[in-house]
Design brief:
The protein is α/β, with parallel strands linked by helices. It is 35% helix and 16% strand. It is built from 7 helices and 8 strands; from the N terminus they run αβββααβααβαβαββ. The strands form 2 sheets. It has a 6-stranded mixed beta sheet with strand order 5-4-3-6-7-8, sandwiched between helices. The longest helix has 18 residues. It is elongated, with a radius of gyration of 30 Å.
């Protein structure tokens, strides 16, 4: 029974402490201090401000007017590895796919990813150090390339992205006017560019 009395006393003390708190409607509280508790009701007749992302001036509906020869192509890490597995020369096969001059671009994070993969991917490192490959500097931290590529093509609509990564392709399809090049059937194929020679037949 002694334990029950002790617990009852503790509970009573806590209730006493709770009662000591002043209610927000107390007359002793100054009106300036009471402002935090009072919330203004939203005016139903006021104009609602919505932030809509501005569409790029390079787009004519879904058609990207900034795309044209020479094509600027950002290459992802796994696209290089797929090209090596299929024994495809990157620059030559890009030109065969698009029937135009192509300038491949490598970002610092893609280079960092390949360097992290170790000696197994030294052939890929040797390929991208070719003088025909242009370098794009990155300002972000780390070597995660997907976010960097998505951000870059969202800001600048002049790029084609070369990747075989399913997650990255899914993210890029949400951005209008960005064609995606990938390896399929031992050759390069491009989607969202129906007028390109390498586009799959029946593409819209």
């Amino acid at each position: 029974m002694g334990k029950q009395k002790k617990t009852r006393k503790i509970v009573e003390k806590r209730f006493a402490q709770m009662k000591k708190m002043i209610s927000p409607n107390d007359s002793r509280i100054k009106p300036s201090e009471r402002k935090g508790s009072s919330k203004k009701k939203p005016d139903p007749h006021s104009l609602k401000i919505r932030e809509v992302p501005q569409s790029s001036s390079a787009l004519f509906f879904q058609y990207n007017t900034q795309l044209g020869p020479p094509y600027h192509i950002i290459i992802d890490t796994n696209f290089i590895n797929f090209s090596i597995k299929n024994k495809l020369d990157i620059v030559q096969n890009m030109m065969d796919c698009l029937y135009a001059k192509c300038i491949p671009y490598i970002t610092d994070c893609v280079l960092g990813e390949l360097e992290k993969l170790g000696r197994k991917y030294r052939v890929a490192l040797r390929i991208i150090k070719d003088p025909r490959f242009e370098r794009l500097g990155c300002l972000h931290k780390g070597t995660y390339a997907d976010d960097c590529i998505v951000q870059r093509v969202t800001q600048h609509k002049c790029y084609i992205v070369a990747t075989n990564d399913k997650d990255l392709k899914r993210r890029l399809r949400k951005i209008p006017g960005v064609p995606i090049m990938y390896v399929a059937d031992h050759k390069y194929t491009i989607e969202r560019m129906p007028d390109a020679y390498g586009a799959p037949k029946g593409a819209i």
